[in-house]
Amino acid sequence: MPSDDIEFERIREKLPGFVEASRKRSAHGKVASYIPELSKMPKDALGIAIMDGNGRTASAGDCEIAFTMQSISKVFTLILALMDNGEAAVFDKVGMEPTGDNFNSMLKLELVQPGIPFNPLINAGAIAVTSLIAGSSPQEKTGRVLAFFRQLADNPSLDVDKSVYESEAATANLNRSMGYLLKDRGVLEGNVEEVLDVYFRHCSVSVTCADIARMALVLAFGGTDPITGKPLIPRRYVQIAKTFMTTCGMYNASGEFAIQVGLPAKSGVSGGILTMVPGRYGIGVVGPALNGKGNSIAGVHLMETLSREFDWSMF
Ligand code: GLN
Asked: Is the same domain home to 43 and 82?
C-alpha cells in the first residue's frame, strides 16, 4: 500500500478515540454568547472531517452538526477582495502584522499610525476588506461571496443562517463602532451599514465540517481543486491567505498554535476551525466551547494530538 494510504487508514482508525479524548476539554470552555443565537450550540459537541486530494474523507464525532463560519469566512472574503482589487489596493487598507490583541479590539486603530487595521483577520481588518468586495449593492456583494463559497465547498446549497445573521446584526454595537471609526479615518469607503450587513451575512454562512474540509482542500493544493482539477484561486492569493492564517488565524493564540500544531488555520467564534496539511489534506473541525482566546478548546486539543501523532507540523 502507498504510504499515503497507510497514513489515511491510521487516521481513520485513530480519529474516533482522539475525538472522545479531546471532547472532555469542552467542560473547561464556554460557548460564545455575545451573539445570542450562538449560545444555542451544544457545549460538548466535537466533530472533524479530513479530506484528501482524491476526495476520501475521514470523519468522527459530531461532524454532521451545522455551524456558522464566523471568522473562518474572513479568509475567503480576503481572497475574493484580492481577486477583485489586486494586492496593492487591499494592502492600502489593511496591514500584514499580528496584533497580540483580541479579535474585536480597536485599540491599535487609535494608537498606531497610519490607523489602518493591522491585518485582515481581526474584525476591523475583515470589515475593511468586506468593503472592497465588488458589486453595486449589498445584495450583489453577498451574492458574489456566497457563489464563491459554494464553488470552493463544491456545495450549491450553502446559505446564510438567518437567525444567526439577525442575532449578530441586532447586537453588533462593537463592530458597528469599528465600522464608523474606519469610515471616519477614510479606511472604509461606502455606506457603513451596508458593508456591515454583507459582513454579518458572510459570517453567518452555515456549514458542516465536510464543507470546511473541502474549502481547506483547495487552499492546501495552492488554489486548484485537486478533485475537479479546476483552478479556483490564483496561487499567490492562496499564499497570502495561508501566511495570514499562520500568523493571525488563531487570533492572539496564533503563535501558540504554530508551536503546538504548526499548520495554517482559521477559527471562528462558533467553534469552527479550518486547517490543512499543505499538499495533503483539508480539515474542518467544530467544537463550540471556546478557550479564553476565542478558539475551540477541544478542537485545538484535537489538532495538537493529530499533528503530533502524524508529524504534520510544517516547521
Ligand atoms: N461575526 C463575528 C464577529 O464579528 C466573527 C468573530 C469571530 O468569529 N471571532 O464578532
From this structure: no
Q: Tell me: the pLDDT tens digits for 66-84?
A: 999 999 999 999 999 999 9
To which H or E segment does residue 309 belong? helix 297-310
Instruction: Let me know if 85 is exposed, middle or buried by CB neighbors in 10 A (0-12, 13-18, 19+).
Output: middle
- d(CA 5, ligand 1 centre) in Å: 37
0.85 exceeded by pTM: yes
Q: Which atom of ligand 1 is nearest to the CA of 269?
A: 8
Domain holding 266, by residue range, is 3-70+205-309
Last residue of a domain, one of 149, 175, 203: 203
Question: What is the distance in A from the centroid of ligand 1 to the CA of 267?
Answer: 10
CATH of the domain at 86: 3.40.710.10
Looking at residue 270, what DSSP letter applies? T
Rounded to the nearest angstrom, the distance between the alpha carbon of 265 and the centre of ligand 1 is 15
Q: CA distances (Å), 139 to each of 79, 202, 286, in order?
A: 19, 12, 29
What is the count of structural domains for the chain? 2
Q: In whole angstroms, what is the distance from residue 302 CA to residue 47 CA?
A: 10
The residue whose CB lies within 8 Å of the most ligand 1 atoms, and thus the one to mutate among 30, 71, 176, is 71
In which element (H, E) is residue 283 found?
A: strand 281-286
Within its chain, how far is the Cα of 111 from the centroid?
27
Are the CB atoms for 81 and 72 separated by under 8 Å?
Answer: no
